[in-house]
Amino acid sequence: MTTVETLKRPEPQALASALEQLAARFGNRLITSLAVREQHAHTTTWLPPQPPDGVVMAQETADIQDTVRICAKHGVPVIAFGTGTSLEGHVNAPAGGICIDLRDMNKVLEVHADDLDCVIEPGVTRKALNEYVRDQGVFFPIDPGADASLGGMASTRASGTNAVRYGTMRENVLALKVVRGDGEIITTGTRAKKSSAGYDLTHLFIGAEGTLGIISELTIKLRGIPETIAAAACSFETVRGACQATIMAIQTGIPVARIELLNAEQVKCVNNYSKLSLPETPLLLLEFHGSEAEVAEQSKNFGEIAKDCGGGDFTWTTRPEDRTKLWQARHDAYWAVKALRPGAGVVATDVCVPISRLADCVTETEDDLKRLKLLSPIVGHVGDGNFHCSLLCDIDDKDEMARGEEFMHRLVERAQSMGGTCTGEHGVGQGKQKYLKAELGPEALEAMRALKKALDPQNIFNPGKILPAA
Asked: C-alpha distances in angstroms, 373 versus 173, 263, 368?
């Protein structure tokens, strides 16, 4: 049986030697102060933060290569860090080690607007990229909400509100350059829109969460900016009605760009936080892209479907300021929930099911919350069956925390029993390792361990993530 090494901290002398060599190479770009190290540990979950032993501020690919070579020589873990917005403990350092902060590797290297692609460094954020390319009539559509780095988004196989039309990071990365365990570079593909040349290494590293290597460059797809963009809102009597409208829209081929569900609790949070006056019942937020005529037709067709499914007034607008206000309220959902109960801990978790089971999964989840006397507003990228719970708990209340853990466990089991997954877009990290065996089976885990062992024989790349202990 192939196994991954037991998670353990490097020997003190080995760590000291690595830090000494890194200091000689990087000077003040190696930071060992506790405050900075703690900023590079995870603080967006209930998982305890586990800071690294040092942080290297990388500015070019050679910095990543030299850090990896020094750490590999001494058996010291290496953790890549983008913006720190991941949600399952991805950037924690359970065995210590060196964090490579990639925020300064933020150059757009090439833009090929005619070919609808560009080449970027991993620290470029999605908002910065779209600002950079906007005047060329193109944009990058993947929008997970947070202004995450594109390297981090590839590493967690992120998606978000536009995935129903434009896909996830999996469908939008053409090629990568990855630093492997000996510091050399793997090139996984070209700018060609398709290829049958060899193993699909690009998609091996997308979603690997930095456990197989560190992404140093990405070639990604761009899309043409639509002539017209319309945002719409429609309230429903029930979650089931909203989900049914979503299914019918997808099945009838309406090319919605975004379709988001907010349950009644989430709408209340959004109203309070963003100063809106939406009806406090289940709500769908939508966006349509195309020509003026296409957008009008899409909106009209969806309005008819919504009416048949118990939807109320269907309002839509093409005014940019109105669209921005509506979607900013959606993106602020986490902060709106946090403001609902100041001082409480918030854990955001997600599952994904086939859309035909979405209504069942959401309604049973709401029933669970009532039974367990817990508060967790729900939002969902319902066009692809993915939804999120933002669970509020008093972390000092052992009984409430126990009920919270029961809720999250039942949520995952429910999704898996419906043919779904323990995570649609947050990734595994530390938080969801325990669910992989039930979802994929021991044989799949064994194959993953074999890949990890082959590409990272010392287990230095982000150890303690994805794969549960063998």
From this structure: 43, 17, 8
